[in-house]
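Reopening this ticket.

The earlier resolution said the output was attached, but the attachment link was broken on my side. Pasting everything inline this time so it's all in one place.
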Amino acid sequence: MSIFTASTSALALLVGLGLAACQQPVPGAAPPPAPTASEATPGAVNADFASWLDGLRKEAARKGISGATLDATLAGLQPIPRVIELDRRQPEFTQTFWRYMNSAVSAGRVRDGTALLAQNRALLADIEKTYGVPGRFLVAFWGLETNYGRTLGGFNVVGALSTLAYDGRRSSFFRSELFDALAIIDRGHIRADKMVGSWAGAMGQTQFMPSTFRKHAVDYSGDGRIDVWGSTADALGSGANYLRDLGWDGARTWGREVRLPANFDAGLASLDSGAGETQKPLPEWAALGIVSADGSPLPRQPLNAALILPAGHRGPAFLVYDNFRAILKWNRSTFYALAVGHLADRIVGQGPLKGARIDDAPLTREQVTTLQSGLSRLGFIDTAPDGVLGSNTRLAVRKFQKAHGMAPDGYADAALVRAVTERAGIATPST
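Inline output:
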């Protein structure tokens, strides 16, 4: 079995988890928690963190982590201010479909993916026999997650997870991930100083969190340890095992780009994060006038599909299948899942997307918050504005569009924001 070893890079993956929380003191309640890593003074951080770390070490020892591993990983550890800074960062702009896709499925990424698919053909064929996941999809995940192993992250994973576990915003989640990271080191899979990843603790060429590593990573190279950092066999084998566990169907693809007929009911598109709001067999979609993007008829298979309009009814349209939902379980982003599917198609020779390239400017966080306030005032949404264009906001946009004779695609752009704010009687934020 041939193994292609990708190079590493000390580039951090700047991805946000949106983990925001705020606590107010309550009379008679328990004392407030210790200051977070970003709030305490430097001297207090050292003292408080040392005490916290001592408790963590004792709990880790009770969980069976050896003293040697704890010495190697925890000695001299301090919170990492940059991790806190990245955790607090909120995106100023929303992402648009075409800007995301142009970056995620760039010409260079297609070219490199095509070459690596050929270079690792024997390995990928063997993995497909074992797990039922075609190599082109594994290469697409590889490309999207770490640019084919080139950007593994520049943070010490134990240090990053310790910082986040101590900080208190989602301490229980990151504390659990930290124990898993310590167990991985303790079992000899990776040296403590070699366990690098993103600021949030995602690791290796597939960017697994430690808990995902422990549940799904495999020693595909057969050398006795699981090395998702340096061994492409282990990384891609682990990715395939994870996808199989997520429900990947090796007999199916992810979906396809399609063409909608004139005056199609955009309200049939799914807006929920699981891409399953409205599902119909392919023949039923065909009966509504939908054809493949090149104009050919849809397959006649009774395969359930959902319609996705990531840039609204004016942009590209996709019918997606259960494997698309498996991708969403890996990363809960419609854009990401579409990019994985499209990149997998491109690296085996399929062409670019055919849908109209809508170059809408991204909405600012202020615009989204104002949109949500307007929708709330008009009675279309009952949640507090948070500046995030999630499923609830898109569903509220659809309700507004239906109420005012617009195509109900749930898509929000600057024109939609103006329409909502004018009817709600509130000021439209400047772009």
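Reporter confirms the inline version is readable. The longest strand covers residues 255-259. The two ends are 55 Å apart (CA to CA).
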